[in-house]
């Protein structure tokens, strides 16, 4: 097995966490992947190369005004790092505002705001020689796996990557040709296992939904957990939870299992750059937020009755406070609590060691003390 050190990354830049900042980038290509998904490529000018340096597995937040509403959504980067461009893949979510717009309206030549790459869904393997990395993805969850698989396979001549990829039918498989090309390039080191829920495959094990029984059989027959150094899981909440439970049951150390959620299933409205409006009236009981962002300190009073998050309070005085999902999944709004304390309701983005060091998701945090001081810069 390869050396695993969860404190660092084997695939690129040392610090995967940086504070997100938007830059306007031009779309250089919109390429259909399936009837319901597109790959969107942005041109990255020389002056912004450092800002858009990334590690395979990270994601970008995009910001656009659609039907008069500012919207931010995160999309995983689907190609290994290369200078001059950066690409994401966007699957149309039925009734989804941003993804529908991106699939039907976005065109080459358009300019939209793109945040510098974020996220810790990245490999912690220091020495990839001999490493076996496994990705389990469903639907658009393939996007970060494309970058990860390329990186794992290209950075060592003895690494292997196994991909278990679940879709409804062949027509829904994003990157089907690119995966076949990758297999041609690394025939002995890439194992591709397509599972189709609504299409019959030659092997009965590969036909149907991934449930506990099927996954246990796949682990017994195709991907033996004791051969694996690191696991990446990306898909719907229920699938990711199921995989985590089955892997734990199979004796896999949770420290070697990384997962990324695209949504918790609950729609959230962050209220755009200014947050949800809150009126502060004389005589109201308030709490105070002090925060540092880009070296500049700001303060805001918040009525206790408004029950607003740290993020919302901060946005009311600074439009550049970083956030994307407002739902506890992307990690963009991370800050360190310097004094005071908060309650964090949801967290699908921070690692346990970050929480121990005092980091919180400000979109999910509410004050427990009269004054809370947070730092977005550390
Ligand atoms: C870290 C991260 C990485 C991601 N990477 C990718 C990726 O690579 N590719 C990808 O395609 N997606 C990715 N996503 C998901 C993406 O950010 C969006 O969540 C997704 O595109 C849906 O956005 P939307 O605006 O189209 O849908 P929204 O308008 O936000 O709606 C989402 C869903 O909720 C439903 N809905 C909306 N409003 C309501 C309501 N009032 N009541 C009930 N239901 C409602 C919609 O029908 C839809 O199904 C990622 C997310 C995160 C956090
Ligand atoms: S904005 Fe995504 S976790 Fe807070």
Describe this structure in a few short sentences.
The protein has helices at about 95-105, 140-155, 175-185, 210-220, 235-250, 310-315, 350-355, and strands spanning about 20-35, 35-45, 60-65, 70-75, 85-90, 110-115, 130-140, 160-165, 190-195, 230-235, 255-260, 285-295, 295-305, 335-340, 340-345, 360, 365, 370-375. It has about 375 residues and is an alpha/beta fold.
The CATH homologous superfamily of the largest domain: Nucleotide-binding domain of ferredoxin-NADP reductase (FNR) module
Bound molecules: flavin-adenine dinucleotide, FE2/S2 (inorganic) cluster
Structural class: alpha/beta
| Helix proportion range | 10-25%
Q: From the 3D coordinates, which CATH architecture of the largest domain would you assign?
A: 3-Layer(aba) Sandwich
How are the strands ordered across the major sheet?
A: 4-3-6-1-2-5
Overview of the structural elements:
The longest helix is centred in the middle third of the chain and has 13 residues, at 142-154. The chain is α/β, with parallel strands linked by helices. Strands 4-3-6-1-2-5 form a 6-stranded antiparallel beta sheet, with helices on one face. The two termini are 34 Å apart. It contains 7 helices and 18 strands. The protein is globular, with a radius of gyration of 21 Å. It has 3 domains: 22-115, Elongation Factor Tu (Ef-tu), domain 3 (Beta Barrel); 132-261, 3-Layer(aba) Sandwich (Rossmann fold), CATH 3.40.50; 272-375, Ubiquitin-like (UB roll). The protein is 17% helix and 31% strand. Bound molecules: flavin-adenine dinucleotide (FAD) and FE2/S2 (inorganic) cluster. FE2/S2 (inorganic) cluster binds at residues 323-326, 328-333, 349, 361, 363.
């Amino acid at each position: 097995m390869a050396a695993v050190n969860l404190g660092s990354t084997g695939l690129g830049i040392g610090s995967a966490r940086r504070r997100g900042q938007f830059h306007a980038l031009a779309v250089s290509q919109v390429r259909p992947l399936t009837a319901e998904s597109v790959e969107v490529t942005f041109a990255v000018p020389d002056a912004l190369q450092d800002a858009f340096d990334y590690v395979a597995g990270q994601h970008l937040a995009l910001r656009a005004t659609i039907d008069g509403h500012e919207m931010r959504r995160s999309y995983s980067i689907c190609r290994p790092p290369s200078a001059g461009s950066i690409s994401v893949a966007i699957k149309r979510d039925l009734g989804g505002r941003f993804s529908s717009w991106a699939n039907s309206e976005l065109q080459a030549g358009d300019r939209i705001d793109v945040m510098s790459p974020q996220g810790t869904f990245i490999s912690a393997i220091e020495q990839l020689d001999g490493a076996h990395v496994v990705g389990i993805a469903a639907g658009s969850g393939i996007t970060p796996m494309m970058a990860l698989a390329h990186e794992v396979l290209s950075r060592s001549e003895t690494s292997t990557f196994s991909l278990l990829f679940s879709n409804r039918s062949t027509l829904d498989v994003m990157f089907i040709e690119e995966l076949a090309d990758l297999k041609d390039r690394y025939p002995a080191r890439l194992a591709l296992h397509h599972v189709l829920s609504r299409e019959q495959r030659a092997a009965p094990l590969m036909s149907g939904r991934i449930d506990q029984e099927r996954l246990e059989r796949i682990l017994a027959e195709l991907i033996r957990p004791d051969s694996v150094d690191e696991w990446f899981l990306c898909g719907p909440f229920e699938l990711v939870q199921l995989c985590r439970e089955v892997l734990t049951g199979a004796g896999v150390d949770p420290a070697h299992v990384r997962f990324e959620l695209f949504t918790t299933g609950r729609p959230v409205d962050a209220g755009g750059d200014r947050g949800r409006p809150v009126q502060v009236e004389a005589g109201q009981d308030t709490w105070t937020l002090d925060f540092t962002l880009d070296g500049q300190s700001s303060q805001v009073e918040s009525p206790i009755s408004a029950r607003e998050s740290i993020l919302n309070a901060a946005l009311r005085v600074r439009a550049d406070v970083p956030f994307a999902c407002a739902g506890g999944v992307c990690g963009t709004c991370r800050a360190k609590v310097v004094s005071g304390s908060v309650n964090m309701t949801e967290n699908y983005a921070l690692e346990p060691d970050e929480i121990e060091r005092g980091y919180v998701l400000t979109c999910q945090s509410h004050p427990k003390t009269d004054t809370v001081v947070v730092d977005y810069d550390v």
